[in-house]
Please model this.
Amino acid sequence: MNLDFLAIPMGMLVRFIFNMVSVLDSKYLSAYAIAIIISTILFKLLVLPLTLKQTKSMKKMQELNPKIQELQEKYGKDPQTLQRKQLELYKEANYSPFSGCLPLLIQFPILISFFYVIRTPEIYVFKDQAFFDTINRTFLWIKDLGYPENFIFENGIVNGISIGSVPVPFIGTALPVLAAISGLTTYLTTKMTAQPSLNEQQESTQRTMSMMMPIMIFIFSMQFPAGLALYWVVSNLFQFIQQFIVLNSSKNSKEELK
Model:
């Protein structure tokens, strides 16, 4: 799937932000890092209406879950009746089990496009490898967001925090701090945004996904440029805070109604 029609304007936006914050460029926090952080937040704000709709659908499902479990206990041996009763319940509650899927499907190509932009900024953002190679790309302890955290430069200096000259299997010679944070925040976000399970099989699948996704993100964060890991961390933190606010505001609303 060619998503250049989305990735190109996104890259232009990141470049615009980079130009705007260039005056803030410093030794330990580059304008490039700031541009990634700001553009990620703007991107999350862009898809916020879709995310909120998906969250609303998830919350509705959580509210219906006890009633669905009651139906499963009552009509578990009669699949046709169970399905009919569930559909009746959905109709009464004005809920569609597919209502949370559409926002996700719309977000997916946007997510992938932004992923392309951050993964290959020399193509979509700067459109010039030579220029990209000359800019400052530091972020706190990371010397260059254009390379993985455990990358070793020609002079022998490690891109991230060095843990010695002897490589550790899989990790290398750098402490994968940003990669670990990206994995941890992915785990927390996945747990918080998990859909309520209707049966043991679904619960098992969700449990597997909640463990596999953070591991995958951790591995990818170590293999791809650190700028991508920074994007994942900022995106996850935004999602976590957003979900926390939405869920707590809902609880407060229910308490007020009582």
